[in-house]
Specification:
This protein is of the alpha+beta class. It has two domains: about 10-310, Pnp Oxidase, Chain A (Roll); about 320-480, UbiD C-terminal domain-like (3-Layer(aba) Sandwich), CATH 3.40.1670. Helices cover about 25% and strands about 25% of the residues. It contains 14 helices and 21 strands. Strands 5, 6, 7, 8, 9, 10, 11, 14 and 15 form a nine-stranded antiparallel sheet that branches. It has a five-stranded mixed sheet with strand order 17-18-19-21-20, with helices on both faces. Strand 17 and strand 18 form a beta hairpin. Helix 4 (about 90-95) runs parallel beside helix 9 and helix 5 (about 100-105) packs across helix 8 (about 230-240). The longest helix has 18 residues, at about 320-340. It is globular and about 75 Å long.
Length: about 475
């Protein structure tokens, strides 16, 4: 469908000015690209109210060649990225998000990207012998990494062999040398499916890698968008205006016209090299360095004073674990409701499990078996199945995002013999740190569903909770704020 609204260029710098205005951007001069920049970012994101960090004056690089980290790590910044107005807590943010992913998905077809002739990304172009990936301050993020990763908070634009479907995914990119990067894609992901088609046909695979734009770009590139849908359309639905794109001069692939840096090239059949290791979202190096496809970079487009969008995984909380927790929590609510589970009060995909491995749903019990139904669907739905390990169901008086409350419910409202269901040979992953002990040839994994609700058949007789009522707590907080803070 053609849309007549003005197109949005996904300009990172416009978003940074907004973040600066509400006091959540800190500029950091002089940090070294070799480990120091990564360690500062890792320590920063573990603090309360951690700001976004914009690194400049990086040794070995011109002033103005910058790296941004921790962009999505607060409710205010994440709500700004998602165009949801100012939200000061994750509970408000998740509540505001309820139903939005389903709405965005249904409207995505109305927002085809708009191709323009030029944009800030074309201010500088390297081609031929001038291509040099080391022109940019790509960090060595952690001591045990296999190399410098230019692509962490990136958007990898690819195209299907047999159709016009353009996919945009977030896949890590390690620099091999001046003109080659590794492309690590999990089997089954949309980009990997497109890659496999090209390889089986013996054809080079076109790739354009966006190394920085409005963080909405990489945020949506990293979530589960339906097969066959272009993430640029989904982003347009969030913005309520189409994305402005330019086309790569070699591949014709679209990328945001205000992108900071774009790498364009081809993955050729049979061209693989050792890639990694690199830490994963759960906080481990789950495997050794392995072969992965190589992209030969033939052209680099970049803005004056370009900014690399950095978002390295690490032991949670990490750079992007908060945004993943919020987004996956909203998607899980939609999935539960779509499956017919009533009275879902809230869901939280905990950062401790990388927003995948420890998920909690709060329900208002309506019938016998309601809690088990919610737990099993939470564990096995399309959004939740990959690498889920523990799915916990609690009553409506428990905040699913408060781990202390959740574990109190587990400790006091469960009988382990009755209230823990085990699913064997569920969907696992080679990236699971426990896969080292997996007895199967395929990546299976067991999963636990913990029913931490009051037993439904004794719900009226169950002991009362010894605490002030929610209403009294709010009244007292208001009156005694000078004491309670």
């Amino acid at each position: 469908m053609t849309n007549t609204l003005p197109a949005h260029s996904l300009d990172l710098r416009a978003w940074l000015e907004e973040v600066r205005a509400f006091g959540e951007l800190k500029e950091v001069p002089g940090a070294h690209w070799n480990l120091e920049l990564g360690a500062i970012s890792e320590l920063n994101v573990k603090r309360a109210n951690a700001p976004a960090l914009l690194f400049d004056e990086i040794p070995d690089y011109p002033k103005g060649f910058r790296v941004l980290t921790c962009s999505t790590a607060s409710p205010a910044r994440l709500s700004s990225i998602l165009r949801l107005g100012a939200q000061e807590s994750h509970r408000e943010l998740v509540q505001t998000l309820r139903g939005k992913p389903k709405q965005w998905q249904s409207q995505a077809a109305e927002y085809d990207p708009v191709t323009v002739e030029t944009g800030p990304v074309l201010e500088n172009i390297q081609s031929g012998s001038d291509v040099d990936l080391f022109s940019f301050p790509s960090p060595l993020w952690h001591e045990k990494d296999g190399g410098r990763y230019i692509g962490t908070g990136c958007m990898v634009v690819t195209k299907d062999l047999d159709s016009d479907w353009v996919n945009v995914g977030t896949y890590r990119m390690m620099i091999h040398d001046k003109t080659h990067v590794g492309l690590d894609m999990i089997p089954g992901k949309h980009g990997a499916i497109q890659y496999d088609k090209h390889m089986k046909a013996g054809k080079p695979f076109p790739v354009a890698i966006v190394i920085g734009c409005d963080p909405l770009g990489y945020l949506i590139s990293g979530i589960e968008v339906p097969f066959g849908m272009c993430e640029l359309n989904y982003i347009g639905a969030i913005l309520k205006q189409p994305v402005s794109v330019v086309r790569g001069q070699l591949t014709g692939l679209p990328f945001p016209s205000a992108s900071e840096i774009v790498l364009e090239g081809w993955a050729h059949p049979g061209d693989e090299r050792i890639e990694g290791p690199f830490g994963e979202f759960h906080g481990y190096y789950p495997g050794k360095a392995e072969t992965a496809p190589v992209v030969t970079i033939e052209r680099i487009y970049y803005r004056n004073q370009p900014i690399i969008m950095g978002s390295p995984p690490a032991k949670p909380p990490n750079d992007y674990s908060y945004s993943k927790a919020v987004m996956r929590s909203a998607l899980l609510v939609d999935a539960l409701q779509a499956a017919g589970v009533p009275d879902v009060e809230g869901v939280w995909a905990h950062e401790i499990g990388g927003a995948r491995m420890f998920n909690v749903v709060s329900i208002r019990q309506r019938y016998a078996g309601h809690a088990r139904q919610a737990g099993h669907i939470l564990s096995q739905c399309g959004v939740g199945a990959y690498m889920s390990r523990y799915s916990v169901v609690v009553d409506e008086d428990i905040d699913p995002s408060n781990l202390q409350e959740v574990m109190w419910a587990v400790a006091t409202r469960t009988d382990p013999d009755l209230d823990i269901d085990i699913i064997k040979r569920g969907m696992g992953s080679k990236n699971d740190p426990m896969s080292i002990a997996n007895p199967y040839k395929a990546p299976f994994a067991s999963k636990a569903i913990i029913d931490a609700c009051r037993p439904y058949d004794f719900i009226r007789e169950f002991p009362e909770v010894a605490e002030a009522s929610k209403e009294l707590q709010e009244k007292v907080r208001g009156k005694w704020r000078h004491v309670l803070g």
